Structure formats: structure tokens, C-alpha cells
UniProtKB/TrEMBL annotation:
Lineage, uppermost ranks: Bacteria, Pseudomonadati, Pseudomonadota, Gammaproteobacteria, Cellvibrionales
Protein's recorded name: 2-octaprenyl-3-methyl-6-methoxy-1,4-benzoquinol hydroxylase
Keywords: FAD, Flavoprotein, Monooxygenase, Oxidoreductase
Pathway note: Cofactor biosynthesis; ubiquinone biosynthesis
Record-linked NCBIfam families: Ubi-OHases (TIGR01988)
Organism: Microbulbifer flavimaris
Domain annotation FAD-binding: ranges: 20-372
InterPro entries per UniProt: FAD-bd (IPR002938), FAD/NAD-bd_sf (IPR036188), UbiH/COQ6 (IPR010971), UbiH/COQ6_monooxygenase (IPR051205)
Top-level taxon of the source organism: Bacteria
Family the entry assigns: Belongs to the UbiH/COQ6 family.
Amino acid sequence: MGNSRRADANAGANTGERHVDVAIVGGGMAGASLALMLARYCPDLRVVLLEQKPLPGNGTGLTLPSFDTRATALAAGSLQMLEQLGLWSELKKYCAPIREIHVSDRGRGLGARLDAALEDRARFDGMFGAVVENAALGPVLYRAMAETSIEAVAPAEVRQVRFDERGARLSWRDGAGAEQHLRAALLVAADGVDSPLCRQLGIETERVEYRQKALVTTLGLQRDHGGVAYERFTENGPMALLPLPDREGAHRAALVWTCDEADADALCALDSKAFLARVQRAFGWRAGRLVRSGEVASYRLSLSVAREQWRRHLVLVGNCAHFLHPVAGQGFNLTLRDCEALALALSHRRSESLAQDSTGALDLLEGYGRERQLDQQLTIGFSDRIPPLFASGNPLIRGSRQLGLLGLAIAPPVRASFLSQAAGFGL
Ligand SMILES: Cc1cc2nc3c(=O)[nH]c(=O)nc-3n(C[C@H](O)[C@H](O)[C@H](O)COP(=O)(O)OP(=O)(O)OC[C@H]3O[C@@H](n4cnc5c(N)ncnc54)[C@H](O)[C@@H]3O)c2cc1C
């Protein structure tokens, strides 16, 4: 489906109130992935995705927040899911494999090195995972969506939602500013952290402010990264250096550097040469000489978890349901597992009953929520425990961090549990 098909969807809405099975609000990584899962597992469902901004590949150069200059580490379990969606053969052109993970405490000589060739689990195609730039991921997802029956409508800003016995009634504004309406048996809120939809529906979130920012940029490397992902704990906060595919012969890596807010603001104010020197000094020489830094973007970090993730005719996915600290690279991986479970739950229900309104049934959504609870709790806990552990210079905390690294280096059960969480194969 190209842009013209999207225009058709708008035009169709002009002629009267449309009824669909599922309406997804938000076309970021979460909304787009769920749409593809539904196309794969529930091909008979009528699904509409509404996004307020122009979609990737629209030719305007504008981008959705999900598909900005960040890179995403996709865990082995996620690669397996993307392969099942038929995306891997296309996506892998834009990915750098993660074949080794080095976790270390800068300046203390202690570290663990995990090699995919030596592990018999937590792998996909001989790697722990792969890293893709979000700007490349977006077009891959939307090109794949164009091959399905999903209607992606953009720009479409959802402004109001009401629920009744039959489902949700959405009002949205199209690109020309005209008011449109749609009815859906199931409304999926995928409109990001601080979701306006959740606010409108009175859904509260539990929030922890980390008072930290993640600085994100692309670095040029003098030598090949060799498929190594580094997680390095420094006095200035944890740094992740993730392998990226070479571009025009240049070796590259994605940096995610988590700092206290004031330090982050000061670092952002540096010119690129001074910033690069600070990164090299903080990170050290494990990846060789750093030769270039791209533009630095910064993200304020918090943990934000919705107190309700489902109601009758409503379910929340992605950042709108849980927004995590990026240190462990778990947010999107967890979302993919949620989306797959939701699509499979809907698919099972469709095979049992063809009643239209069963799509948004409370028992179905409760069952989905129960199934996802443990994985969500463990993953959120994993992401939330790491920042204080690794940001602290306190000798007691530093001691337990070093014990953790030692365990990772020498104790197979510690390594297995770390890898199984990091690999995202679920439970
Ligand atoms: C620095 C950083 C690094 C990260 N690295 C990793 C990683 O390595 N691995 C990993 O797994 N995860 C990672 N994550 C997490 C990952 O980025 C998120 O899981 C992902 O962005 C989730 O996107 P989303 O679609 O839920 O939200 P968003 O990207 O915020 O998308 C929401 C969409 O909804 C649209 N919208 C909002 N309101 C409306 C409305 N009223 N009507 C219509 N549309 C609307 C918005 O325009 C937007 O496009 C990282 C996060 C950060 C901050």
C-alpha cells in the first residue's frame, strides 16, 4: 500500500462512520510492529493505523520520533520474531551483528566477555543480536506494511475517544484539518510515553525520574568493531558502544552514554572535537581510536509504567504501557514480545469465535495481560536495577557491581540468566 492507498483510507472515512476491528493510535516502533504482527497472525482482521505525523518514506524528510537518529539493539529473540514476520532478509541489510558482548568497569580492570560462538543459547543465527539504525528500521517496517491489508492513515491526529458497548469511537483530524470518525472493536494506544490518550482516559502511570539523560550519537572508529557490543561502566555513567554497519568504507558505532542531567547538558554544549575527546577519555581504548562524532541527541530518562494496560475494548502497547531506562536496551524488545502475544491471543480467539465484538472482549485482554505480567515485571526490574548499580561510586555498591561482573565472567548460571534476560527469548 503506497501513499495513494493511505489517501483512499482518508477519503473512505469522509463518506460516513467506518467500522474496523482494530484501530492502532500511533505509528512508531510499537504501533507499526503490532500492525505487522496482526497482518501476519490475524489476516482477516480489518486494521487501521492512525499516525499524526507523516510516515517514513513520505519524501518530506520529516520523521516520527521512533525513527530518529538512535540505533536499536535487537535481541536474538526479537530477530527470531522479525524473521517469522518475513522481515529479516530485508532488515539484515541494515544491521550489524552482535557476536560478542564486553561488560566492564572502566579503570578497575574487571570485566566479562561473552562470545556467541561459545554460548549454546541466547543466539539467533550465531549472534546475540543485531543493531539497526532507527532511521533504517522505519522504512523497512512501512515497506512491509505496504504489502499487507493494513491501512496506515497519516497525518491523522486522534483527538477524542469514547467507549460504549460496541467498542471505541475515535475522532481524528486529517491532514487538511477535517474531522473524521471511526469505530473500532479494539483500540490500541501506541501513542508513546506521556500518552495523551491515556491522560484523556484517566489512566495513571507510576513514574520514577532518574534525573539522567542519555546522550546518543554515531561515532566513527579507526578500526573495525568486529561485532563487539561494549557496555562500559565509567565514573561519568554507563556507556554502550554498539556495532553499526560500515558506511562508505567508514567503521561506525552507536554511542549511548547515560549521565546526570547537568553533566549531559555540559557535554551537549561541547563542539564535536571536544565531545569526541571526552568520550575517548571516559570510554578508554578498548574499541581503538574514535575518529568522528555525529550530532549528539539527548533523551531525558524515567521509568514510566501505566497502572492499567487494558480495559474492555482497549489495550496499551509500547512506551505508552512501559517506558524503560535504555541502559539494558530492552524497551523495544519487550514491546515486540507484548505485540506478538497480543496478536496470537487475538488469533486464537478468532479461530474459536467469529463474533465481531470478541476482538475487544475483556476476558481476552485480561488473559493477554496475565500472560505478559511476569516477563514485563522481570524486564522492567532488570532495566531499573542497573542504573543505580552502575552509576554509583559508593564502595559498597561498587563492590556488588564487581561481584556481579565476576559472576558474569566465571559462573555459568549467572551468565545464563543474564543472557536469557538480555536475549529476550521471553519466559
Ligand atoms: C536513548 C534510547 C535508546 C534506546 N535503545 C533501545 C535499544 O537498543 N533496544 C530496545 O529494545 N529499545 C531501545 N529503546 C526503547 C525504544 O526506543 C522504544 O521502545 C520505542 O521508541 C517505542 O516506541 P513507541 O512506538 O512506543 O513510542 P513513540 O516512538 O513515541 O511513538 C508514538 C507515536 O504515536 C504518535 N502519536 C502520539 N499521539 C498521537 C495521536 N493523538 N494521534 C495519532 N498519533 C499519535 C506519535 O507521533 C508517535 O509517532 C531506546 C530508547 C531510548 C530513549
